[in-house]
Amino acid sequence: MNDQSNSPLKSVDLKDFWDSLQIDILTSNQQLASEDCLAFIERSFMFSMLFRGCLPFELAIFQQICNIKDFACLILIELPDLKAGSSTDELELHHMIKNSLPTTGCSVGPLVTNRMSLLISYDSAIPEKVHKEESIALCKELVEIIESNYDLSVKIGIGSVKSIHSIYSSFLDALACMYFNIPNHITHYLDLRQLSIENRFDYLDTEKHLIEAIRLRKPEAYDYFGIIMEWIDPLNDDIKRNKILEILVMANHTMQMDSKTEAKFINYTSYVSQFMELRGSQLTEFAFQCFIYITSYVKPQSTIDYTNHIVKATREYLENHYTDDISLEDMASQVNISPQYFSKLIKKTTGFNFIDWLSMLRVKKAKELLTDTSLTVKEVCFMVGYKDPNYFSRIFKKRIGLTPSEYVKANSYLNNKS
Length: 418
Known about the structure:
The chain is of the alpha+beta class.
């Protein structure tokens, strides 16, 4: 047995190895259906459009791929009871919502904390009252479907119909709706006029709520930030720039004071230089993108949490014992937790189950050994922990797409050709 602490690999090399192992596991599963591929395209674009910024040609391509029309509204769906690390399948949720929308011209964004965005497009601008009636009817159906399938409460905010090139304004409308919303309720942007926002808004009070939400990592920070952005929107660009920079500095300082990890470096000088080139609504859009980056509410999906001591112990044990006959129960015993809890924790922190992790690790090691032409497939089978060459061959083909023998031939051919 090799001692992990004496391994010549540096920690960064180990991280690269386990990250690449994770990619191998994800890509070795059966091919995605076309509707799944389209779902990933939609989610990526919706994220870019709202949180990163989207170039005109990118928007044109997306409109063509997803049949998005020239006018649209943005709807926000919040699931207040959805907890971080929930077992809710986001792709399943995406398809369920997508199938409830009109057949064309609609897109569903990614799940950001506990919110999803919907884009509903139209051939032309429609009267406000007609839009309110149709969109609320649609959202009532969504509430019923989500509640019946997931037993979760739902909050929905509906933005105005805008040109697709100005959809960010509809997004801010929807955010403002969420500020006044309660669970199992739908708020349309026209309702805000009845709520007399101007009389209920207190800048300093909202600012305090914003900082507290950032400190506690609550998604309500979006709401407070959006309300402040709406309040400063009528101001001239110079005042608007000062207010935006003030809030971003305050947000970053709050993150630094409370963060358990290294805070992000923010180049404020760069922000100022960029702000000076922007005008009007461009300032608000850029400010929201900066806010999302600073507060880190959007986290990469399916990444391994290397800071978790169970994940670390599991990784180290498997690295040294992958050739042994290891069961989930054995591994759970090694880290002193129940098999049920171990299984859930590994799935939550790595994105895949323990058996996938172990089998792909063995296959990855087998690929390295099979490059040594002096070893037979049977020998490699035993060296990586399998006792049945036929079973090993099936696992290898499932993960790689080739049998071990086919892999050896392909690798030999490439080496001879080079």
